[in-house]
Amino acid sequence: MKTTEEPSLEADETKPESLAEEPRPETLRTSLLRQFVLMPVFVVVIFAVVVGSIFLLFGLFGSESRTAREYLNDVKSSSGSARWQAAINLVAELEKKQGSPEAKELQPEIVRLLDQSTGDDLAPLRYYLVQALGWIGDESSLEAIARATHDPEMSVRKGALMSALKVADQGATPLLVAALKDDEPEIRAQAAWELGHLKAEASFAPLEVALNDSKEDVKFQAAWALANCTRKSAVPQLLRGIDRQLVTVVYANDGEKIRVAMIQSIEGLVKLQVVEAIDRLREISRQDPDLKVRDSAIGALQQFGK
Question: What DSSP line would sit under 92-150, residue for residue?
C-alpha cells in the first residue's frame, strides 16, 4: 500500500527518541492480525489435519482387519446395536466382494439366519441379511429372497425385491409381477420400476394394469417402465407426469420426488417420440422452477430436433 512520505526524523533533533521507535498503525494491525487471527487458525488447521489423519489411519486399519466371515460371526453372537452395526458392515463388505468365492461360501449360513430371524424386533436384521444375499449374487438365494417378499415388514419386502433383481435378473420377473399387487404402494412402485429395467415381455400386461392403480406414484412408475419397454400404452400417464401442478399435489410438495417423476416422464416421452409433448416441453424448458427439470426438457427438445 502506498503511504505519504513522512518527514525524516534525523532532521528534527528535538524529537523524542521514543517516538521514532513507536510502531506505525499498519504495523500494529498486522501484528494483532497475526497474533489473534492467523496463528490460532493455523493451529486449529494443523490440529484438525493431525487428528483427521489419525482417525483415517485407524479406520483403514480397522476395516482392513475384518472379513465378511468375521462380521457374520458378530451378527450371530452379538445383540442390540452391536448386532445391527455388524450386519451393516457385513453388507458393505459383501458389496465390495460381490460374486467372489469368499462371499458365496457364506450364502447358506445367511439364508439360515434369515429364516431364523423372525419377529418384529428382528425386522432390521432381516433387511440387512436379504441385502447381503443380493450382493452375494448367487441365483440359489432366489428361493429365500422370494420368501422375504412376503415379510410382514415393508422394508424387508422392498430389500428383497432389490436383491431379486441382483441375483436372478429375468428370473426375478415373477416375484416383481406378484409385488405389483402388494398392499403397500411403495412396494408396487418399486416393483414397476424394476420391471422397467428387466423389459420382460411377461411384465407388459401387469404393468398396463398398474396404470390404473389407485396411487399416482405407482402409475408414474408403471408408465416409465412401459416407456422403457417402448409400449405406447404409457403415453397418457407420461403426459400427466409433466404437469407440474398435478405432480406437486401427488408428492405433497416433495421437491426431489417431483423432480424424479417429471424427468422420468420426459425421458419416457422422448423414448416413445411423443411429438404432441413438444409444446409443453418448450414451456417447461423456459418456465419450470427446477433447473434439472428445465435441463431435461431442453435435452428432450434437442432429441426431437427442436
Answer: HHHHHTTT-HHHHTTHHHHHHHHHH--SGGGHHHHHHHHHHHHHHT-GGGHHHHHHHTT
Give the torsion through C-alpha atoms of 111, 113, 116, 120, to 10 deg: -110
Of 197, 163, 199, 157, the residue nearest 179 (C-alpha): 157
Name the CATH code of domain 202-306 (choices 3.20.20.450, 3.20.20.60, 3.30.70.330, 1.25.10.10).
Answer: 1.25.10.10
Q: Which residue has the cell 428383497?
A: 160
Q: Average of pLDDT values for 142-161? A: 96
Whether this prediction's pTM lies above 0.90 is answered by no
pLDDT tens figures, 265-293: 999 999 999 999 999 999 999 999 999 99
Q: Residue 233: what residue type?
A: S
